[in-house]
Amino acid sequence: MERIVKALVFDFDGLILDTESAEYGSWKEIYSGLGCVLPFDLWAASIASDSFEPHEHLEKLAKRQLSRSEIEERRELHFERIMADMQILPGVLELVANAKAHGIRVGIASNSSHEWLDRFLVRYEISKLFEVVSSQDDVGVAKPNPAVYQSALTRLGVDASDAIAFEDSPNGVESAKRAGIFCVAVPGPVTESLSFDHADLRLKSLADMPLERLLSVFTNSAS
Question: Model confidence over 17-29: pLDDT tens digits?
Fold first, then answer.
């Protein structure tokens, strides 16, 4: 029996909106202001390991204790300045629109909090595009645990074998695969040097493959 895609499930940070580059840029400015350097490779590697704590690292480099509340306040200002020029990443809106035209349901499965997600979904006026927004808040565990994808699928009423996930990080791909979902990796500037060998497909941008072609690749992957 031919597989039919019934849902597309998107990660958010780095996949729909490049908040990850803004996060790195804001921390880089904080480091620079204290005469320190935040290596890009170190930051990128932390996306895969989740083991890096920038406050602790900065204090080690500065060789003194810092006011974390003041650091966060300044960093947020840098972050918002960078985000002011950010646009929805290429191909996202077109893919969502085409999916809906084909009767395919659309949701989000993210490690971020609902507060964080709502902040940007409302700001960019895209909250109504997604039928389901599943957050780490809902499941209590982060990717690569598959729980947030399982939550999204349950709420969408779709089996894992009938869905496609889109991710920009290795942990995200692992989460989707552990949930049994066909996963397309779309690395961003922060994650493009990391390994995505476990993804079913890798694209440079969501604009690189029309929905019809993606559905064909998905169908052929089962044969």
Answer: 999 999 999 999 9
DSSP one-letter string for 1-33: ------EEEE--BTTTB-HHHHHHHHHHHHHHH
CA separation, residue 101 to residues 98, 116, 129, 214 (Å): 5, 28, 12, 15
Give the Å distances, CA to CA, from 173 to 48, 67, 215.
10, 36, 18
Structural element, H or E, at residue 165: strand 163-167
Tell me how crowded residue 25 is: count the other CB atoms within 10 A of its CB: 18
pLDDT digits (tens, 9 = 90+) for 34-83: 999 999 999 998 887 667 899 999 999 999 999 999 999 999 999 999 99
* Active-site residue set: 11, 13
